Amino acid sequence: MTITYDPKHPKYLDEADVREELTRVYDLCHGCRLCFKFCTSFPTLFSYVDKHEDQDAGRLTPAEQDQVIDECFQCKLCYVNCPYIPELHEWALDFPRLMLRAQA
């Protein structure tokens, strides 16, 4: 798994790497939930994860991951309210940029 948002990075377009990063970020977002009210991506994400007894974001299908991606409209409200962005935390979450990477 590579945390990169640089389109020139060799792993940027690697689908397996993107899916692994989606799982990591989805799991962290599911645990925090501060972003619940910002756009439909998050309620969709949380409902998909919550339907599994162990609440493991790794159980989402690629179609479910893609639904979350498709619902992001790049308002960036999640980013400006996230306590785990690269500038503030080692987890280095950048949900909007990850959604762009996943769509590339």
Task: Please give a structural write-up.
- The chain has 104 residues and is mainly α.
- The chain is 50% helix and 0% strand.
- It has helices at residues 15-32, 41-50, 62-71, 77-81, 95-103.
- The longest helix has 18 residues, at 15-32.
- The protein starts with 14 loop residues before the first helix and ends with a helix.
- The model has no long low-confidence stretch (mean pLDDT 96).
Note the gap between the termini.
17 Å
Order of helices and strands: HHHHH
Which strand-content bin applies to the residues?
A: under 5%
What is the overall pLDDT average?
96
Number of extended strands: 0
Largest sheet: none
Gyration radius, in Å: 13 Å
Sum up the overall morphology in one term.
Answer: globular
Total separate domains: 1
Question: What percentage of residues falls in helices of 4 or more residues?
Answer: 40-55%
* Class inferred from helices and paired strands: mainly alpha
Uncertain spans: none
How many helices? The count is 5
